[in-house]
Amino acid sequence: PYWYLGVLATHPSSHNQGLASGLLAHTFAIADEAHLACWLETEEPENLTFYENRGFTESIEFALPDGTRVWWMGRPAR
Fold this sequence. Notes:
There is one protein chain. The chain has 78 residues and is of the alpha+beta class. The protein has 2 helices and 4 strands, in the order βαβαββ. It has helices at 19-33, 47-52, and strands spanning 2-4, 37-42, 58-63, 69-75. Strands 1-2-4-3 form a 4-stranded mixed beta sheet. Helix 1 links the parallel strand 1 and strand 2 (37-42). It is globular and about 40 Å long.
């Protein structure tokens, strides 16, 4: 079992205000209490570092049939 984080986005005018980081911290606290990993996917290469800096240590890259690159990223259970 794991938590799949379906959609996490902030409007560009709200970037760099800590909103996504705060939401992730809250989510991680709940997932950690249940000893569950968290997984998500992103199509944006610039998001990789953001998620890596927040504990997502596993990354699987693949391409969809239309050529879109996607990364499936995981944060282990704690």
